[in-house]
Design a protein that fits this description.
disordered C terminus; 252 residues; 63% helix; single chain; mainly alpha; transmembrane helix; Tetraspanin/Peripherin; Tetraspanin; Tetraspanin_EC2_sf
Length: 252
């Protein structure tokens, strides 16, 4: 690779990783702040606490922070060890993404059934009307039922005899039709409640946004591919110039 080509690839790769590193710091900081100030986020499936928003942000931020740091420092300081570590980690990340995507597609029906059962289990055992905080499970379900005009996972019967009211066939007040919604309406007749569950509307909401998710996935894949190619080009060029004792002429 010529000196100008090497310098161009190196600087572009370095500044791209600086931008990603700053973004990762912001995401990681946001996740930590949410975790500390709000004592964690509730999830629709409390038995899988690692799927909460704050843990998700911390995980993504930590992975992106590590990769961007290795890529930036490796290119800026001509460090072959960092560059090859960056290359290996991106390869592992790509393989993990492909495995997860393929598994999700092949077993999508089974995953759908499992998701429904876990959501019902969350309602049955973890819903608590006395819990405090803006991100507890009851607040999340209230928001979903108001937004999608639904009740329960598959129907309002999912709320019957849950641990929060083990002897009653009640539903939250957010299950009530707008015309009759008032405090205590969830303890009235079922004719006043939404009949449909929330799983169908939520699933349709995600399907309608598959195009956006696809575009984001393509952008991420392109950045990962560019990182792989650039890191290996820089690694090979540095190694070649060191072996031929001409490495100094490539420093900018």
């Amino acid at each position: 690779m010529s000196k100008s080509g090497y310098t161009c690839v190196r600087l572009l790769f370095c500044w791209l990783n600086i931008f990603l590193w700053l973004s990762a710091c912001a995401i990681l900081g946001l996740g930590i702040w949410l975790r500390v100030t709000n004592d964690g986020f509730a999830t629709l499936m409390p038995q899988y606490g690692y799927l909460s928003a704050d843990i998700f942000a911390i995980g993504i931020g930590a992975v992106a922070f590590t990769l961007a740091f290795l890529g930036c420092c490796g290119s800026w300081f001509h460090n072959r060890c960092m560059l090859v570590t960056y290359f290996i980690l991106v390869i592992i990340l790509l393989i993990a993404e492909i495995i997860c995507g393929t598994t999700g597609f092949v077993f999508r029906d089974g995953l759908s059934h499992t998701l429904k059962e876990e959501l019902k289990n969350g309602l049955l055992h973890h819903y608590n009307t006395t819990s405090k905080g803006p991100y507890n499970l009851s607040v999340i379900w209230d928001h979903i039922q108001l937004e999608f005009r639904c009740c329960g996972v598959e129907s309002y019967e999912d709320w019957y005899l849950i641990d929060a009211w083990p002897t009653e066939r009640w539903v939250p007040d957010t299950c009530c039709l707008p015309a009759v919604r008032e405090k205590g309406c969830g303890k009235s007749d079922a004719d006043n409640w939404y009949e449909g569950g929330c799983y169908g509307p939520i699933h349709a909401w995600f399907l309608n946004r598959l195009a956006t998710l696809g575009i984001v996935g393509l952008i991420v894949a392109f950045l990962q591919l560019y990182g792989l190619i650039s890191s290996m080009l820089l690694f090979c060029t540095i190694k070649h110039r060191r072996l031929t004792r001409k490495y100094k002429s490539y420093r900018s």
